[in-house]
Amino acid sequence: MTENRYVKAWLDEVVALVKPKQIVWIDGSEEQLAALRDEAISTGEMEALDSEKLPGCLLHRTAPNDVARVEGRTYICTKNQVDAGPMNNWMETGEMKKKLIPLYDGVMADRTMYIIPYCMGPIGSPFSKVGIEVTDSIYVVLNMDIMTRIGKKALEQLGDSNDFVRGLHSKANVEEENRYIVQFPEENSIWSVNSAYGGNVLLGKKCFALRIASYQGYKEGWMAEHMLILGIEAPNGETSYITAAFPSACGKTNLAMLIPPEVYAKQGYKVWTVGDDIAWMHIGDDGRLYAMNPEAGFFGVAPGTNQKSNPNALATTRRNTIFTNVAKDVDQNTVWWEGLDKNPPEHAVEWTGKPVNGKEWVAEGKKLAHPNSRFTAPAVNCPCLSKEFENPNGVPVSAIVFGGRRAKTAPLVYQSFDWAHGVFVGSAMASETTAAATGAVGVVRRDPMAMRPFCGYNMGDYFGHWLEMGKKLGDKAPKIFNVNWFRTDEEGHFIWPGFGDNMRVLMWILARCRGEVDAVETAIGYLPKAEDINLEGIDGVDVETVRGLLSVDSQLWLEDAAGVEELYAMFGGRLPAELAKQLADQKARLSR
Ligand code: OXD
Ligand code: MN
Q1: Three-class SS of residue 52?
Q2: Is CB count within 10 Å lower at the N or C end of the chain?
Q3: End-to-end CA distance of the chain
């Protein structure tokens, strides 16, 4: 399908290693994809769902040992360990290849090898980048079709260039003890083996668009971030864009697709989604920062998605969607997950494939869907998709928002003093862990810029890159904020209602960007006056509640600063001096 000599030479090496029974190039045609869907259904790899209620939708179950990203087995391999940094697992490039080659040797001898050319970002954009993923999984092909732009058009975008990411995936025997997700940023390549779960195997997503791309951005002067992108259109038709970084499963998809509360809807405000997970950001010709979503679909967490929390996401999943590890409603031939509604199907198949009485199962406190079960849905299905989604230049960013799940410390919202302080705020991010990765849930861990599992190089250098970008942007830099929707009361209940009401906070953020509202200067940054958060029509929250949500406890913040100090100590000489100074200044302000 291509005459590109770099592609051909690499594929020759791959074929010699995996020794496939058969090779199939994915051209992106609907005929080919339809045939693959039929094949997956006929082998039982996928199940077709009700053609009226969920047309074009499929259900897939992964091995029960393979349901989330495996951070412990994810590596950044470089020549020198210091270039991967202290927050990544590392092995020297050659050593890792020696370990992995036997796992790939002949692994496709009785399988078809699919070659998927794909493009991250709109076809024709100068900021898009091409990857080629080799895989032995039809599930991967069909997911990549939704999540990226695949086939001939991606090869055309590549032309005869050598600038493509080489991705080699084999599900092999899905053995946990031999599972490796390995990035070689210095070689533009990714090797993934013994997994068949989304984030480990859809190599365009976390592996390329964050880990490899963050390194490319460092080298080339742009940024790859774990951020949603949304636009708020004012009644006068002007749209302002916000990007926001939150750790996995902290509601990025919900925020990106929020429904404006009545108070704004009736005035004519609209919210548009550009992306829900990843932003590639470049400095535009006018000196502003522009964000583009490199993906073409949403790989969202299913549990908790419902008509109230995120009607746009739910609508997006009603067609041509792949569901992974959710429960099946046998009578309807549809899907169900915790939080979809209060009515689990009686006649159900739970996520590992066992037929059960769903009502009894749930009543016994057991999960019908896996907590990290997912939908893979095409962006074009989304009712609030921005008309700028395919804009080759992306959208201009007014504000960058950081946020995590913090029961106590962080207030509802605050603004950094300036860009460098904003980089400090992002670097100090922490959050309680979720089910998106294997390991304990609910433990506070530091997750700078929500990039801890996704930064493809030394995070000290990454902080330095952020500071450099700020210098280049100068007074055109977006303003930087921090939010926390997750403060809890004494009984552990969330105080802020979240979801659509988060727009009230975003409106304060945009008013700050336009210089329309003043703020209170505190030790940690600029906080809103409680009465400047619009509460018209909100349920159960008054100005006193907001005052509580905005309180800053210096003692807790000093304890938090000790956590930041520990984090910074990990980077040694690679920590930018500016950040050490920011931390010292913040501690001094808190102790005053
Ligand atoms: C995701 C994640 O799948 O962050 O987006 O885990
Ligand atoms: Mn994510």
Answers
A1: coil
A2: C
A3: 67
* Cα(118) to centroid(ligand 1), Å: 20
DSSP β-bridge partners for residue 183: 76, 190
Beta bridge partners of 165: 131
Is residue 440's pLDDT more than 80? no
Closest CA to 322 of 36, 111, 26, 121: 36
348, two tokens: 């159900």
Q: For a ligand 1 pocket test, name from 62, 67, 69 the mutation site with the most ligand atoms within 8 angstroms of its C-beta.
A: 69
Closest C-alpha to 483, from 405, 547, 545: 405
DSSP letter string over 3-39?
Answer: --HHHHHHHHHHHHHH--SEEEE----HHHHHHHHHH
Question: What are the pLDDT digits (tens) for 345-390?
Answer: 999 999 999 999 999 999 999 999 999 999 999 999 999 999 999 9
Nearest residue (CA) to ligand 1, atom 2: 248
Interatomic CA distance for residues 572 and 581, integer angstroms:
14
CB distance 550 to 528 below 8 Å: yes
The whole-angstrom separation of Cα 235 and Cα 249 is 32
What is the Å distance from ligand 1's center to 447 Cα? 14
Enclosing H/E stretch for 48? strand 47-48
Q: Is the pTM of this model over 0.90?
A: yes
Number of Cβ atoms within 10 Å of the Cβ of 265: 15
Alpha-carbon gap, residue 108 to 172, rounded angstroms: 8
Taking 90 as the threshold, does the pLDDT of residue 433 lie above it? no
CA of 322 to the centre of ligand 1 (A): 16
Residue ranges around ligand 1 (CB below 6 Å): 69, 199, 248, 277, 299, 436
CB half-sphere exposure, 433, CA atoms < 13 A: 15
